[in-house]
Amino acid sequence: MLENKNIEYNVENQLSSIGSSPVVLFDSVSSGYSGRKVLEDISFRIDEPAIYVVLGPNGAGKTTLFRTLAGILKPYSGRIEIGGYPSETPEARRQLDYLTHIDGIPEGMSVRDALRFYAGIVGAGEADVDRVIDLLKLGELSVKRFGQLSQGQKKRVSVARIFLKEKRVYLLDEPTSNLDPKMASEIRELVLGLSKDKVVLYSSHNLFEAREIGSKVIVIKNGKLALFGNISEIKTEKYTIGIRTLGVDEVPYSVGKEGDYYLFELQGPEEVSALTAKLLKKGVQIREVKEMQNPLEELFK
Amino acid sequence: MIAFSVGLIAYWKIKRRFTIWTLFLSLAAYAGAIALKSVVQYFTANPFYEAVGGNLVAMGLYVGLQTVIFEVGGAYLAAKIAFSRGKIRAYDAEGYGLGLAFWENGVLLGGFALLNFIVIYSTLAGGGTAAQQLFDTLSATQPDLFVSASVALTHVGLGVFERISSLMVHFAWGILCVFAVAFKNKRFLYLALPMGMVDFLVLYAGSLGTLNFEILFFVVCLLCLFVALWFTKAERKNVTTVSLSTASEAGDKRLKSLVKTNFKRALSFGSVYLIIALVMSILFGAVIGGTASVSDDVPMVVSQSFPMMLPVFAVIGSFGGLMVFVSDRTKGVYEYLIAYGVSTYEILWSTLLVTLGLVTVVLGVSLTGNIVITLLMGGSIQPALIELLLIYTIPISYASVAFMTMAGMIWSSLTARVPGVNSPIGICTIIGVGPTMAVLILSSFFSGSSNFLLLIGGVTLTLVVLVAVMLVVANKKMNRERLLADA
């Protein structure tokens, strides 16, 4: 469970702890829609390249945070800077890429044309379009109209857009939703590649994914900053996973069964790898591993 | 002179850069100055003339000071506002000066004069009573139009000479005004302001004689150009070595990319409307207009139906632009564009340009098609038809569609997605044909061609002003979240 001391996170200390010109600065920012506040007095600064996983229950304000940072919503109060520039300036906008849960692909366009369209907007060229088509394995889909694609394929096209031009800050709002596990894993690999020298803000509902991809976390609760720190600071009382196997009646360490899934209670997501290794050693053929309940839901009760 | 002005713009575009924004800024500065001068002169010219007893020095000061205040001062003020918003830089100084010169020489004096001559000579070429009446009037009021070729060539030569002088002086004060703002150096403004006094000389054109006046005017304007170039030598050298502003260049490229892509999409999205508009206009024009042109018995109201109704077809044929806007908004495209730094203004303006492009397609195809069909049917193109097309059809078509598109975009942004007649497309059909209907209805209350011209000018100007106001207000006051997809 998220401890109270984390919720009482001291923003002042965080803001004053590091030198000037942060990559991202959020200083006492309040924002929302049509005068209705969704985010209230949020402050944090990011100085080092890494993946910062943005966690929070539905309606907590994650998308509003991203939209405010992306310059789509004008904050009611406070100051936002990207790379030392006020977020409204072209210099700030040029440093930032954005992926939301909406595809945002113009209607009636083929995949290649849609990527060309965005390439024209961000100042990328035809070679960049070819490169991202290869990178996201969109070759066969490139001539198809976007509307003809499956949900997963659409997501791949949407994700491809962020690789058109190198930026300093990436805002990725649930980039792996609607993707099959293999593709989701490949996208995570690409994002991990970015994080070597970029700041990536990555929102997710999935603590397992969050732990896999990031070491830093920004937790939003009821529009306020609940935690800005290391992901290891998030403690869960109970972490239950289900494992679907192939042709086995008895699975060791299991505490029960729910449908096709054998249940296992762990201390946290970090124990999943060790458990699957032990099961494989004992000859269990694993088909799927999944979180049986979202630990974040319990976390934010 | 028009070709010369346009050529300079094109040359500067290739050599350096000449953004559409610089051109519009110079238009705003120039048009504002001319409008203010017109208003001031409308109310004060006659009383002032009577008060000073027609004294040339006083009248010269009266005219010159207005140019100083409105044209030069206005050019400085417009540059200052644009500079403070990052829309113009020292790099644009020459382009700004060329823009001011272009609007005066290429458009206000050159373009309108050309239009006037086309109407006059096409009417005269048409023969008949109207041509004779026009000839009689012009012979009495503008005998210069009918002098021998050798004399006419001298007049043309002097006219071009004068416009070159005007071009030099506008260019000179344009550069100085931008540099005054960009380098925060009032000295440039103080050099520019007296240049407006060149209009002082205009009053002496009669007493000096045309040739002497033109030579004097040319020398003074050349001197102004020399002063501007000499005193800005160091700054211009620095400016030309500075690389292009990446932000500004990126903005231009983005806008071009948006317009180009969305124009193609608009053709596709609105293809049904476009085809309907083209087919209807050609059928309408060919059958009614063509018949009218070969038969003397057809009443005027029928022969004028085609040019009068063409704006309605232009409205229908340009729906594609608005459809692209509505689609992109509902699909969340604008969320990405805004995140990539595209402004509300760029989104609205690019859609406006796309729809105006569609109007050009409708008018171009329809007019070409109708002219060809009319000629094939043995008819002739009447001067009255050309006049009506030039003074009514084309301006009202562009103005109506611009108004419809702006209203539609704002409507779409401020309301949740509504299908049917309350959708932007449904509403805009009514909004778009409104101005045409207004002109047609109001024209019955106006008799005489000058009143009709006044009516069309009034309606067109009102629409253009409304579009500009809506664009500015939407850009400044409308929350960007209004452009996001509905939840």
Plain-language structure description:
The complex is a heterodimer of chains A (about 300) and B (about 475). Helices cover about 30% and strands about 30% of the residues of chain A. Chain A contains eleven helices and 14 strands. In chain A, the strands form three sheets. A six-stranded mixed beta sheet of chain A has the order 6-7-8-3-9-10, with helices on both faces. Chain A has a four-stranded antiparallel beta sheet with strand order 2-1-4-5. Chain A has a four-stranded antiparallel beta sheet with strand order 12-13-11-14, covered by helices on one side. In chain A, helix 5 (about 110-120) packs across helix 6 (about 125-135). Chain A is globular, with a radius of gyration of 21 Å. Mean pLDDT of chain A is about 80; it is low at about 1-20. Chain B has about 475 residues and is mainly α. Chain B is built from 20 helices and no strands. In chain B, helix 4 crosses helix 18 and helix 6 (about 150-180) packs parallel to helix 9 (about 210-230). The N and C termini of chain B lie far apart (about 55 Å). In chain B, about 40% of the residues are buried. At the A-B interface, helix 4, strand 6 and helix 5 of A face helix 11, helix 15 and helix 16 of B.
